[in-house]
Amino acid sequence: MTHTVLRIDASARRDGSESRALTQRIIDRLAPQGIIHRDLAVAIPTIDAEWLAANWTPQDQRTEAQRDTLALSDSLIAELTAADTLVIGTPIYNFGIPATLKAWIDQIARAGITFRYTETGPEGLLTGKRAIVAIASGGTQVGSEIDFASGYLRHILGFIGITDVHFVAADQLMIDAEASHAKADAALQALAA
To answer: What SS3 class is residue 41?
Structure first.
């Protein structure tokens, strides 16, 4: 069976990025047969009024302009759908995720496509996938009360149906880089390929 990974890099830095280095190590460990790479250093547009109007117009009633407005979103969802495993590499910026990662999430979280509303609440439609999130931070401890990144990512991934979520954190690098790297190494070694 083909194993495809969608790699999302959210760091604004291409060189010297801890999250990118950690993400590469995860990819090396997984040794996927296929990799789809989305580098969010090339910003994704945020959703706007035109996007919302296009999204809420029934598909068979959309104008050509509305289809064009949703083309990137459709492409990003196709990348996600094609992947067996999602690997997200992200720094923590100001206690949360980078704006570019939030823009990607806004583009792929679409009612009727990646989730739906039911009588019992929302239901994610992208089931059967695994996500591994590589997080780097200078001072924020992942899982602490000031970490608004990991909990949000776990929640939004579950919201679209991806409930098998693992974190590999190199956090508090500015406090104790050696201990941070050792903790990340241990989490990396515990990952099932």
So the answer is: coil
